[in-house]
Recover the amino acids of this structure.
């Protein structure tokens, strides 16, 4: 009996507190709007940069996964020569794997890659296939590509090989690493700046509500309201700012995601499923947003009410 | 029931608002705490409801040292001590009923009980027919009666009245004093702080006289000696 009574009291108290918070949110709707907008802006900045960092990072990882070294062979090389060269390369300790790409395989890759471009499709066909055969080499360590390449560039093997492609990948990875660190720096700088602005704005909004209602609060304490009872409406108000902002920001992000995914998928030819990656990250970003917004609201309201309750 | 033991309150700048005050209030007593403005009456009341802590001394209420109360226990202590003020401290935009109910709402009382208690209190103070009037529309005397109803809604053992008639005309003042008598007769201790000589001289109750923070006189059926 006692515990059901306790529960009923809890429900009634919660109802009263939620009502008070909602009324306060609505009464100061312009202030609430400005406060919410600042949180939305902050969340969007954090999300966009988190997302960019994840994307660049993922691309770097995917680049590292890619074939490290491609050895393009001359059309005049015999099968025996190629087989001997392949054995020689795979016997080196740095090499993790090696695979042979025939002219047909190269052609089919070309077709897949340029599936949407008829002009490029038409340039090459089975009867007139200028694409060279190649050996794709993966090393155990990206740093060891250079050693394998140097070995292949020695005079003994040079006649068999038209071109080695490894420098481009390495440059690309180096560039991506630089971009990642740049995005992270700018992103965390801006995020921290806007978080601080948000904290101050939310704190200020709650403080203003407290000042506007200071008579009522004094009376509440006078008639024996507990600190928690006095504080909860403000905490809820802070949480409401957070939730409303997180919802609006999430909707914005979902919409942008729908618009931007096809663009990314078309223009970022980076060898993994960008669409799937964006879908997974989307939920992560939405959840992170909600958490940040809630923490922001709770932190600010506790901070703002702390001084008042100290009296 | 209530015992002040050597209570002293100093403010920065060596201002002594309350100076070594000791006296007892027994069960069911009606005590007038009198003295000119600045004598220390309000400070003593603030200390009694623990809005302020004394510089030294103790106050025992029902044998409990109220300065030992934890922050958490304070709201519950305040519910057992009703206070009314010169400026009423009502919520202007709320009705009489809502103002009284407010004190129960903050204490997580269920709506059915609130309704019943509020009705009882409004009947006690004679405002049962004006329950839905906004408090800003009331006369000073009515406002003070609402604040008494609110102070009593938790059934406190002690009602502190800090200059309750300070803003009222003589007729309304007497109505309030009569109401305080009625409440006292029902068993509640009443501590009436006032500097209204006319009232003090007419009520024939115990008078505790303060001057410059000290108690200078304490007698049954006392008079306000200037």
């Amino acid at each position: 009996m006692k515990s059901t009574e306790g529960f009923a009291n809890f429900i009634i108290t919660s109802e009263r507190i939620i009502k008070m918070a909602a009324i306060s949110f609505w009464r100061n709707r312009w202030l609430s709007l400005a406060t919410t907008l600042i949180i939305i802006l902050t969340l969007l900045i954090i999300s966009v940069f988190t997302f960019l960092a994840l994307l660049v990072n993922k691309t770097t990882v995917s680049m590292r996964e890619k074939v490290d070294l491609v050895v393009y062979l001359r059309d005049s090389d015999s099968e025996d020569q190629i087989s001997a060269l392949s054995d020689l390369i795979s016997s080196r300790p740095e090499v993790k794997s090696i695979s042979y790409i025939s002219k047909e395989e190269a052609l089919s890759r070309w077709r897949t890659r340029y599936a949407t471009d008829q002009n490029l499709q038409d340039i090459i066909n089975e009867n007139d296939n200028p694409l060279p055969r190649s050996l794709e080499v993966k090393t155990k360590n990206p740093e060891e590509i250079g050693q394998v390449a140097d070995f292949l560039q020695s005079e003994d093997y040079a006649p068999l090989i038209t071109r080695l492609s490894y420098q481009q990948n390495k440059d690309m990875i180096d560039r991506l690493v630089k971009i990642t660190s740049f995005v992270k720096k700018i992103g965390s700088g801006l995020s921290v700046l806007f978080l601080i602005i948000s904290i101050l704005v939310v704190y200020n909004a709650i403080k203003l509500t407290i000042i506007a209602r200071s008579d009522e609060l004094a009376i509440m304490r006078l008639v024996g309201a507990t600190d928690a009872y006095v504080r909860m409406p403000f905490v809820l108000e802070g949480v409401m700012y957070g939730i409303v902002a997180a919802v609006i920001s999430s909707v914005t992000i979902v919409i942008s995601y729908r618009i931007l995914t096809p663009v990314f998928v078309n223009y970022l030819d980076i060898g993994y499923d960008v669409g799937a990656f964006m879908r997974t990250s989307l939920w992560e970003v939405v959840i992170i947003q909600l958490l940040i917004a809630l923490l922001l609201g709770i932190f600010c309201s506790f901070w703002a009410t702390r001084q008042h309750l100290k009296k | 029931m209530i015992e002040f033991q050597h209570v002293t309150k100093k403010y920065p700048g060596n201002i002594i608002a309350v100076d070594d005050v000791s006296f007892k209030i027994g069960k069911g007593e009606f005590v007038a705490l009198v003295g000119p403005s600045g004598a220390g009456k309000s400070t003593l009341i603030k200390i009694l409801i623990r809005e302020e802590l004394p510089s030294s001394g103790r106050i025992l209420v029902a044998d409990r040292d109220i300065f030992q109360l934890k922050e958490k226990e304070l709201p519950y202590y305040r519910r057992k001590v009703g206070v009314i003020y010169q400026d009423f401290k009502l919520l202007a935009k709320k009705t009489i009923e809502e103002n009284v109910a407010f004190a129960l709402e903050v204490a997580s009382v269920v709506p059915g009980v609130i309704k019943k208690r509020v009705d009882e209190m409004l009947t006690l103070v004679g405002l049962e027919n004006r329950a839905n009037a906004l408090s800003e529309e009331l006369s000073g005397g009515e406002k003070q009666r609402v604040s008494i109803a609110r102070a009593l809604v938790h059934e406190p053992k002690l009602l502190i009245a800090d200059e309750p008639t300070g803003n009222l005309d003589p007729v309304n003042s007497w109505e309030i004093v009569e109401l305080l008598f009625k409440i006292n007769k029902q068993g509640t201790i009443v501590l009436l702080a006032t500097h209204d000589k006319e009232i003090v001289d007419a009520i024939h109750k115990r008078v505790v006289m303060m001057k410059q923070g000290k108690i200078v006189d304490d007698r049954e059926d006392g008079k306000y000696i200037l």
In short: The two ends of chain B are 29 Å apart (CA to CA).
